[in-house]
Amino acid sequence: MRTESNFTEVLKRKLLTTVFTALFFSLVMGAISIGVDGPYHKGNQFIGWSYGVLMYSCPIILVYGSLISLALEHAQKKWFKENQWLYVLLHVVFGSASGLLFQQVGFAIIGMAAALLYALIDRLLIVNKGSKRKKIYFIALIPLLLSLIAWVTLEYTSPKIPPFTKEAAVKIAATDEGRALGTFPDKIGQREGTINDYRVTMKTEASELEKEKYLVVFTETWEGNGETGVRSVSYVVEENYFQSQGEEGTVPPYYFDSDRKEQWTNQTFDE
Fold it and tell me: TM segments (predicted)?
């Protein structure tokens, strides 16, 4: 009965150690990742990366880390009972397994750091038993409190995202391969000149449909060799989304010339 009670106590300690380690580890990795996704909303970046690391690291630490730790604790009692630093060192050695598996030094260092933290927290819980251990439980509140402070501070100090402008919408629409045959300007305005024997005007326009949502229209007119024509391609563009609204008119005949020569003599664009 006593053995069963001791085993339950050990499992409880390993679970607490896992939670403490995962929380501290995710806090550190979240802090390292600040700014990876750009200068805006750094607080949300920090929380997002911390949460992601926590979701991955907690199961790994709970299963792999705890099983290794239980085995090392058994080995310590049997062969090196008084050598606490060897117990910690062996945790670090086994923590490098991910780096050896994937042949990545960075993974090895991360695993070793997490294993070292795990071993130190585990030793701390062993030394502080009973009522003393309850005080140690407040360690778990430290990363949670630091995360909250960091999130609020980083969000408050991060620069505001600039508004999405129609000029930016034009540049997005101008990257679409669907109009690759043309050489429309990637900014609002127009260019005039000649393509082979045709007088050509290519115009880029943009109008706001609603807040930060724009209609971008590329219009091409031409005349020459007794022919005239108009072709237009339009897009609805938002900051993270754009969709073609189709094409009207006919494709200019010079698009099919293998020896296409362009010469632009006049260009007028919005600054």
Answer: 46-72, 84-101, 107-125, 137-154
| Cβ atoms of 122 and 65 closer than 8 Å | no
Structure tokens that stand for 201 in this block: 């005007």
Strand partners for 46: none
Do 31 and 120 lie in a common domain? yes
Q: Which domain holds residue 54?
A: 2-157
Burial of 128 (C-beta count, 10 Å sphere; 0-12/13-18/19+): middle
- pTM above 0.70? no
Query: How many domains, in total, are found in the chain?
Result: 2
Instruction: Please report the pLDDT score of residue 160 as a whole number.
Output: 84
Question: In the chain, which stretches have pLDDT less than 50?
Answer: 1-2, 4, 178, 180
pLDDT at 207: 92
The DSSP H or E segment spanning 25 is helix 2-32
Q: Distance (Å, rounded) from C-alpha 120 to C-alpha 27?
A: 17
- In sequence order, what E strands does the chain have? 189-195, 198-210, 213-224, 227-238, 241-249, 262-269
Euclidean distance between CA atoms 26 and 53, whole angstroms: 5
Q: Are 182 and 195 in contact (CB under 8 A)?
A: no
Q: What is the pLDDT of residue 1?
A: 46
Using CA atoms, how far apart are residues 149 and 156, in angstroms rounded to an integer? 11
Q: Say whether both 150 and 170 belong to one domain.
A: no
